[in-house]
Amino acid sequence: MKSIEKQAQENLKALSENPYPGRGIVMGRSAVGDLMQIYWVMGRSEKSRNRVLLLDRADGEEVVRTAAFDPLKVEDPSLIIYNAMRQHGDFHIVSNGDQTDTVVQFLKEGNTVDEALASRSYEPDDPNFTPRITGIINDAAKTYLMWITRKHEATGLPEHSHGLWSKFAVDALGECIHTYRGDGSPLPPFEGRPYAVPLGEGVVSTAETYWDTLNPDNRVALVAKSIDSETGTVDYHIINALNR
Known about the structure:
By secondary structure, the protein is an alpha+beta fold.
């Protein structure tokens, strides 16, 4: 039987051969036991590539958000400018859209993550109808949840695929989900469950590994975030194609 570590390495190689997985999330436990989140942005058009990731620290909160590299080139910011990473209490949220804010707002109101994500639909970017992908870590419980909302082929209604909160079980391994299976017209949505991928020791080496893995013609920006397993201290490393 193939080991999970070997399968993870093969999955990373397959990701490197995928010209367009779209936006992606990885969550897991680093080689030194810290919890980790990775988020990346890809783009095929000049408009989609006109983005960077920025870390803002204001009002006691750290937020990683997308921003226009050249604001004069922005036509419609609704699906390209959003908070990608936020924290509320023990919850560390990462997503490919403004559902990041939806989760935080629902938690502040005493509601659940499930209720927050079930309230949202896929993106209205006809003909792709891009799935919304979300990953959440509960630092106190050392558990995580990954969620995807796609367009149901037959009904056109939002189809929510998610699992129960899972425990981080193995060091140096994570799970990966992304918006598309690959390139196409329209773009084919991700299918199946999140798959295993390897993780390094820290945010810098891990960010560089995944940046080097993504297709160099289509990669736009990437952030790796680590959460110290003992202190809860957070660290980030951001890579942007437009100012690298």
